[in-house]
Amino acid sequence: MSEALLLSVDDGLARLTLNRPTRLNAFDPEMAVAWRDAATAAVDRDDVGAILLEGNGPAFCAGGDVVAMATAGIESGAAIRELAGVINEGIRALTESSVPVVAAAHGTTAGGGLGILMVSDYAIIGEDSRVGSLYANIGLTPDLSVSAQLARAVGQRRALQLVLQDRLLTAQEALDWGLVAEVVPADRVKARAEEIARFWLSGAHGAYGQAKRLVRSQPERSFAEQLAEEARSIGAAFDTPDARARIAAFAARSAR
C-alpha cells in the first residue's frame, strides 16, 4: 500500500490513515489511487467489521492538493475529472458497504475533505476543529460526494449556506447542524473514534452494518420498496446464529 495512505487491520478493525501531513492530507494523484485501493480492500475483507478513518498531522483532510493541481502535471479539466473518479470509487466502496465507518476528524476539514468526512456513518471532531467547503475560493465546485451528501446531512438551506460562503463551521456549529455526532477534547478525537468502532465490534456488528446499509441505500428505493427491503433484511438477520443467541439471552433475562 502507498505511504500516502496507510491501511491496517487489527481484531476486526480496519484503520485507514490519510498520511500526507505536510499537505494537510490533501489528495494528489498518488493518494487518490491509494485511497481507492485501501477502501475497496477494507470492505472486501471478511475479517473487517468496522472501519476507522483518520489523518496524520495537524488536520484531517484539506480536500484536493491545490499545489499539485498547479504543478504536478494536472493540466486539464479532464485530468481533474479522472482524479475525482478514482477517489469516488473509494467513496462508493465505503458508503455502499455494510461495514459501519467512524471518522476521527481532528483539526480542519475542508473542500473534498468534507466529502471524506461524510463517508463516515459516525463522525468525531475536536473542540478546536473547523469544517467547511471553500471550493469557490479557488474557482471550483463541490466534488467527492459533497453535493450528493451535504444536503442530506444538514438540509438544503444549510448546505447552500456552507457552499455559497467563505465559512468554516466551528465544532459546536458542526454538531448543532448534525454534520458530526460528537465533539470531544482535541487530544481525545482518535481514541473516542476507536471506542465507537470497538463498541460496534463487541456487539452485533453484522446487524449494525445492515442497519447502516438500509439507511444509506434508502434513496434508491420507493417507500414500499424500502419497507420490503426492511422486512427482507430483518428476516435474514433473524436466521443468523448471532441474532438467535442474542434473542434467546434477552428472553432469558426478561423471564427472571
Helix content: 40-55%
Could you give the order of the helices and strands? EEHEHHEEHEEHHEHEHHHH
CATH superfamily membership of the largest domain: 2-enoyl-CoA Hydratase, Chain A, domain 1
Kindly give the count of domains. 2
Q: Low-confidence parts, pLDDT < 50 over ≥5 residues?
A: none
Tell me, what is the CATH class of the largest domain? Alpha Beta
What is the 3D form? globular
Mean pLDDT: 94
- The CATH architecture term of the largest domain is Alpha-Beta Complex
CATH fold type of the largest domain = 2-enoyl-CoA Hydratase, Chain A, domain 1
Number of E-type strands: 9
Q: Order of strands across the widest beta sheet?
A: 1-2-3-4-6-9
Helix-strand category: alpha/beta
Largest sheet: 6 strands, mixed
Strand content: 15-25%
**Whole-angstrom Rg:** 19 Å
Q: End-to-end span in angstroms?
A: 53 Å
Total helices: the number is 11
Family: Belongs to the enoyl-CoA hydratase/isomerase family.
Pfam families: ECH_1 (PF00378)
Protein name: Enoyl-CoA hydratase/isomerase family protein
Organism: Microbacterium awajiense
Question: What do these coordinates show?
Answer:
The radius of gyration is 19 Å and the shape is globular. It folds into two domains: 5-202, Alpha-Beta Complex (2-enoyl-CoA Hydratase, Chain A, domain 1), CATH 3.90.226.10; 205-254. The termini are far apart. It has helices at 29-44, 66-71, 77-95, 112-119, 146-154, 156-163, 171-176, 189-202, 205-217, 223-238, 241-254, and strands at residues 5-10, 13-18, 50-55, 101-105, 108-109, 122-126, 130-132, 168-170, 182-184. The model has no long low-confidence stretch (mean pLDDT 94). It has 256 residues and is of the alpha/beta class. This is Enoyl-CoA hydratase/isomerase family protein.
